[in-house]
Write a structure and sequence with these properties.
Protein name: FMN dependent NADH:quinone oxidoreductase
Bound molecules: flavin mononucleotide
CATH superfamily: Flavodoxin domain
Enzyme class: oxidoreductase
Function: Also exhibits azoreductase activity. Catalyzes the reductive cleavage of the azo bond in aromatic azo compounds to the corresponding amines. Quinone reductase that provides resistance to thiol-specific stress caused by electrophilic quinones.
CATH topology: Rossmann fold
Number of strands: 7
Number of helices: 6
Helix content: 25-40%
EC number: 1.6.5.-, 1.7.1.17
Structural class: alpha/beta
Keywords: Flavoprotein, FMN, NAD, Oxidoreductase
Largest sheet: 5 strands, parallel
Length: about 190
């Protein structure tokens, strides 16, 4: 089984989502010693923004990287994402990754009856960090709701969210939210337990 672990926080060692995503991966490693884990820090090793040149395949190195990013996603059984809430949405570094994995004919296609996701069968775990408190269904949430939409469009419905929110309100809020999020980390696949 392959697990792809991505972080996107710009806050380095102070990051809430880096701590949480690492804890999720540690839980999986503990239960599945033979788990193959691949890691990419999208902040330290960003993927180029999708441009007209990207679509024209103007740069062979960029084409090769885009293909590698897509294949890495397609090959993963589980994807663990560290996702901060930045300006009501996700970090642009993570959006740049999404722009490389949402590929017509590879991860979705359009049919006469509408779009069809082609990347089903994966499990996604989102380690979410939010400075304020938005809950499960805020009209201002373009982070978790957006990711559910994107991955759902690609055919992925097995999505868990581990959320620490209100972390900017006070140090106490931050530590309480992190403790609650750690306690809510989902178990790896039931059959592996
Ligand atoms: C650039 C930036 C934008 C942010 N925008 C928001 C925001 O719109 N709403 C909010 O509640 N918190 C916002 N925050 C606070 C983050 O959501 C909070 O710090 C969270 O812990 C981010 O996860 P991280 O610690 O892993 O980076 C922002 C933080 C940064 C650095």
């Amino acid at each position: 089984m392959k697990l792809l672990h991505l972080d996107s926080s710009a806050l380095g060692a102070h990051s809430v989502t880096r701590e949480l995503s690492a804890a999720v991966v540690a839980r999986w490693r503990a239960q599945l010693p033979h788990l193959q884990v691949e890691y990419r820090d999208l902040d330290a090793q960003p993927i180029p923004h999708l441009t007209g040149g990207s679509l024209a395949k103007a740069n062979p190195a960029e084409v090769a990287e885009a293909e590698a990013v897509l294949q890495q996603f397609l090959g993963a059984d589980v994807v663990v994402l560290g996702v901060p809430f930045y300006n009501f949405g996700i970090p642009s570094t993570l959006k740049a990754w999404i722009d490389r994995i949402a590929v017509a004919g590879k991860t979705f296609r359009y049919t006469e009856t509408g779009p069809q996701g082609l990347a089903g069968g994966k499990r996604i775990i989102i380690a979410s960090g939010r400075g304020g408190v938005y809950g499960d269904a805020s009209p201002f949430d373009f982070q978790e709701a957006y990711l559910r939409q994107v991955f759902g469009f690609l055919g992925i419905t097995d999505i868990d969210v581990v959320r620490a929110e209100g972390v900017a309100l006070s140090p106490q809020h931050r530590s309480d939210a992190l403790a609650a999020a750690h306690a809510a980390i989902p178990e790896p696949l039931a059959e592996a337990a």
